[in-house]
DNA sequence: CGGATATTTCTTTCTATGCAGAATTTTCCG
DNA sequence: CGGAAAATTCTGCATAGAAAGAAATATCCG
């Protein structure tokens, strides 16, 4: 697949962004490429277009699949896998959020709960320390609770919330 | 400063989290330590408690300051800087969000806008590619617009929104 | 079954970044 | 003004993680 200068810029920037957001450059670049591509691409093409090793594409694809960001399709008379990306930005955001929650937030919650229990049991624990831990735990719990509810909403509802912006508060007061 | 096993666990986990969220281990560990510490700590103590080089503490402190997460205080008869962390989780979250937006999102927006213009100008550009770029741009713009409004809200309003959870939609329909 | 094509796994570089320690600069007090 | 204490900047090394390439495995078709 041929990259126009615009596509190349997009792919490169997306790749750099990835490194700042918990995935490596290759994964993010492939994601960008598939996001832009009008049609599904076989791994070989991806490797060639992005000048990276075929094995690297293979591993990166696996990572993208674990996020649920890409899917496999086939064409008659071609036994290679063809990959295509989810193209709805909302869906992309939510799938990434879900996976990162699983990988990052859930373990953090476990740790915080454990710390809270320990701090309670250990008699000598500084009350300030206790308080800081339980406050942080409560905060993360309430945020994840909010997230768990909101993520189930139909897309149009999410759009409505975002469009309402800060006016949401006015509604709440009613 | 002495670390209880609970504090140590907290600090270590926070450090690992940091690496997944765009700051390095040292920065996150220091942040965790200061978050837990009942009183402000001088750099020397931090270095000793966490067994890291004094220079490393110095650089990490600078990073934390650029996020607005810590502040400097002094004690009479002691000319060393003493550092203390913001302890309100909401404030912590918002300051991190603000800084990451500046570092990550704003440049991404610039790139997307540039790509959108380029794609428009270049006559041969695939309409699908154009569409994907403008959709992503619109999405990020609307999210950041939402964020810019919400971040200004008083803390109690944010708490109210989070506590309302998905019920927020019911309000919107009214 | 055999061999071509496709894919994955394993091993080996390579490189960016984190961090320690040295060197330098700044600050403050006698 | 010295010179001690504190803080920062600089330099280089060590290492984790990313990516390449080799080797192994799987898939499919004649």
Walk me through the structure.
Two copies of one chain form a homodimer. With 174 residues, the first copy, chain A, is mostly helical. Chain A has eight helices and three strands. In chain A, strands 1-3-2 form a three-stranded antiparallel β-sheet. Chain A is extended, with a radius of gyration of 22 Å. The structure holds a DNA duplex (30 and 30 nucleotides).
The total beta strand count of chain A reads 3
How many H/I helices of chain A? 8
Major pleated sheet of chain A? 3 strands, antiparallel
Give the terminus-to-terminus CA distance of chain A: 55 Å
Strand order of the largest sheet of chain A: 1-3-2
Residue windows where pLDDT falls under 50 for at least 5 positions of chain A = none
Largest chain-chain contact?
A-B, 61 and 61 residues
Name the beta content range of chain A: 5-15%
Keywords:
homodimer; 174 residues; 8 helices
Topology summary:
2 copies of one chain form a homodimer.
Chain A: H1 5-20, H2 25-36, E1 41-42, H3 43-50, H4 54-66, E2 70-75, E3 78-85, H5 89-121, H6 127-150, H7 155-164, H8 168-173
Helix pairs in contact in A: 1-2, 2-4, 3-4, 5-6
Chain A binds a DNA duplex (30 and 30 nucleotides) through helix 4 and strand 3.
Brief summary of the model shown:
The structure is a homodimer of 174-residue chains. With 174 residues, the first copy, chain A, is mostly helical.
């Amino acid at each position: 697949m041929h990259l126009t200068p615009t596509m190349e810029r997009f792919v490169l920037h997306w790749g750099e962004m990835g490194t700042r957001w918990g995935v490596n450059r290759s994964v993010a670049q492939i994601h960008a490429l598939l996001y832009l591509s009008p049609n599904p691409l076989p791994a070989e093409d991806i490797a060639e277009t992005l000048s990276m090793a075929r094995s690297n594409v293979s591993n990166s694809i696996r990572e993208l699949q674990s996020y649920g960001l890409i899917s496999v399709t086939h064409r008659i008379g071609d036994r290679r896998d063809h990959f295509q990306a989810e193209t709805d930005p909302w869906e992309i955001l939510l799938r990434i959020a879900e996976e990162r929650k699983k990988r990052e937030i859930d373990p953090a919650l476990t740790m915080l709960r454990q710390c809270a229990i320990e701090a309670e049991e250990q008699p000598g624990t500084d009350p300030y320390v206790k308080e800081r831990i339980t406050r942080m735990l409560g905060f993360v719990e309430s945020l994840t609770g909010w997230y768990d509810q909101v993520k189930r909403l139909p897309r149009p509802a999410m759009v409505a919330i975002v469009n309402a912006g800060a006016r949401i508060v006015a509604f709440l007061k009613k």
